[in-house]
Design goal:
2 domains, alpha+beta, Heat Shock Protein 90, binds adenosine-5'-diphosphate
């Protein structure tokens, strides 16, 4: 009793610990999932930004590369422009991104178009939408840097001034330009090829920044129309970034020196931009001729309020003034293929938690199975002990009878032949009981070890039933029981081990006699069960309690009531009957009511069916 408490406590403790671990694992998974979700969001943001920056850099390089000496426009001297164009083509991965140039000179009546064959701007036919662009450019309040419909970049060219030579001005529309820009010489329009952007640059960038294919990438134009998608987004994107963004913050190429013409590469760098451009701190130094004093100053201002003049005073003479739109007209959207990063993290969390819970259930299941099996083994061991004691008990009575009968014979107490015959039949009867018991135990042992061989042959059920009832004749007579035997007409021959089936029926009959509670009614029947033949033995004896009914076919099991009532037995008979029924492809059933009687039925399959 004490042992079982300890076991219950130990098992309960282990299950409690496992449940605690499951709870901890849940918490840990949630925290890890949250951290991973944030990391993925940061990564998606950074990848989207880098993706957009790559395109922005490409576009910005195409724009700012063409700041040439304003005087060259007046002189129609295209040498510097050609040199810059060649320089750009040599440095870009997409030389056909620019499909042409148009220059609207302030003083010339007709626009000029760049002729690549001769390397010069000439008066020529201009695409009609670009002519209309000139009208848009006439309104200085609305001049933009990038015109999406025309797919063109616009670079106003101003007269040079001594103090500032390159000017990049960013302004929000609300803020007026603080600098008085030098007078405008004209406007250079750089025509871009949209197909190169959508057909080559964007797919290349999608492959470069999202190589694992775990994100959908889509780019929408200024009017919300799709311009590129490797896979259509489904709902809100996880990260977005502005494209064709020409704000100074994004002009990394200035820092990298790509703007400077190759001629100045060896010269002392006089533009220093803080590595983190976002800090909006720029340092400019001006260096005079050899020996002259140096002047260095810093311009620091709040983000988004920057008017910056960056210059290479000695070498550059061009002036560019422009308003840059705060964000690009195109928007990049990226979305995890699971629908969103949040959905993906939730799925991952669920997946790992299900695995964790599965392992938990497996462990708890294993523990419960081990405990149940230990309990079963314990019960089984107890039953074996009961079996040994009840078998010894069973053996003791016949042995005692045999012993005293034979002693009387040996001592010559029985001197007339009638007495000798009585003792003889007593010894014979008890000897038979002993051999039946031994036979049953051997059969059980044989069945358990799988050594028992069955000899199947087509047999008449009628014969088997009658043989079994006949074999039980002595015990039936002893109790004065009249058997009501019934065999239905037309039962087919079955493939049987007649000896085994007869032994099974004898077992059932002798149980009905043993547990008959003085009743002298017994019915043995063979009937057609539709697909099977039903052999049944029915009595009006003590009946079986529902709790016991679950166990009576287990070896060594005996109902507590019959043990207490000291009805002899070893608990093997029904286990053997079940074994025999199953060896024939059949099964055994019991219907019983305590105090009313029991009916055991062996169902044997008819040829061509299975029970
Ligand atoms: P044994 O009869 O030797 O105890 P069995 O395996 O034949 O072993 O039966 C197992 C138990 O099933 C019996 O101990 C008894 O409790 C119950 N039992 C079997 N047959 C009957 C019956 N006809 N009526 C009431 N109880 C029965």
């Amino acid at each position: 009793m004490r042992g079982s408490w300890v076991t219950t406590f130990a098992v309960g403790g282990v299950i409690l610990l496992l449940t605690l671990f499951l709870g901890l694992q849940y918490n840990w998974l949630r925290q890890a999932g949250e951290a991973e979700r944030e990391r993925m969001h940061r990564r998606a943001d950074a990848d989207a930004r880098n993706f957009a920056d790559d395109l922005n850099r490409e576009v910005q390089a195409a724009l700012f590369n063409f700041q040439t000496d304003p005087a060259s426009w007046a002189r129609s001297d295209w040498a510097e422009f050609n040199e810059r164009y060649a320089y750009w083509k040599g440095n870009t991965q997409y030389p056909d991104l620019i499909r042409g140039f148009v220059f609207f000179g302030k003083d010339s009546a007709r626009p000029l178009r760049y002729d690549a064959a001769i390397g010069a701007f000439t008066v020529a036919e201009i695409p009609s939408n670009i002519i209309s662009l000139e009208l848009k450019l006439k309104d200085p309040a609305n001049v933009k840097t990038f015109y999406e419909d025309e797919f063109a970049l616009v670079l106003p060219v101003h007269k040079p001034e001594r103090a500032v030579e390159n000017i990049l001005i960013r302004r929000s529309a609300a803020e007026p330009v603080k600098f008085d820009l030098p007078a405008k010489i004209g406007i250079l329009v750089i025509l871009l090829d949209k197909d190169v952007v959508t057909g080559r640059i964007l797919p290349d960038l999608a492959r470069k920044h999202f190589p694992e294919g775990d994100f959908r990438v889509s780019v929408t134009g200024g009017k919300g129309e799709g311009v590129f998608a490797n896979s259509a987004l489904n709902g809100e994107p996880d990260a977005t970034a502005a494209m064709f963004d020409l704000t100074p913050d994004k002009m990394m190429f200035i820092r990298q020196g790509a703007l400077r013409s190759p001629k100045q590469a060896g010269e002392k760098q006089d533009i220093v931009i803080n590595q983190r451009i976002e800090s909006q701190t720029f340092t400019r130094s001006e260096t005079g001729p050899e020996g002259e004093k140096k002047q260095t100053f810093t311009v620091t201002s709040q983000p988004r309020k920057v008017d910056v003049a960056i210059g290479e005073p000695k070498s550059r003479t061009s002036v560019v003034g422009m308003k840059l739109q705060p964000d690009g007209p195109w928007t990049l959207g990226v979305q995890h293929i699971a629908g969103s990063i949040d959905a993906f993290s939730a799925n991952e969390f669920r997946k790992y938690f299900v695995i964790g819970s599965g392992i938990y259930l497996l462990l708890v299941g294993a523990i419960v199975a081990i405990v149940l099996s230990a309990m079963r083994s314990k019960r089984f061991a107890q039953r074996q002990i009961d079996f040994v004691s009840s078998v010894s008990h069973e053996f003791r009575t016949p042995l005692a009878v045999i012993y005293s009968a034979s002693e009387n014979l040996a001592d010559g107490i029985a001197n007339d032949s009638e007495q000798v015959a009585r003792y003889g039949s007593l010894i014979k009867g008890e000897g038979r009981k002993l051999s039946v018991m031994v036979e049953q135990i051997l059969q059980f042992a044989g069945a358990r070890s799988g050594k028992r061989k069955y000899n199947f042959a087509p047999a008449d059920v009628n014969d088997v039933v009658l043989a079994a009832v006949g074999a039980c004749g002595p015990i039936l007579e002893e109790k004065g029981i009249q058997v009501d035997a019934f065999v239905a007409d037309g039962l087919p021959k079955l493939n049987l081990d007649t000896e085994a089936i007869s032994a099974a029926l004898q077992n059932l009959i002798s149980n009905s006699v043993k547990y008959g509670n003085g009743s002298n009614w017994l019915r043995v029947a063979a009937e057609n069960g539709g697909g099977s033949v039903k052999l049944s033995v029915e009595d009006r004896g003590i009946g079986i309690a529902a709790d016991d009914m679950k166990h009576i076919f287990e070896p060594f099991y005996r109902a507590r009531g019959v043990v207490d009532a000291q009805i002899h037995g070893n608990g093997l008979g029904l286990a053997l009957v079940k074994e025999i029924a199953e060896a024939h492809g059949g099964k055994i059933r019991v219907d019983s009511k305590i105090g009313k009687g029991s009916k055991f039925t062996i169902e044997l399959p008819m040829p061509g069916t299975s029970a």
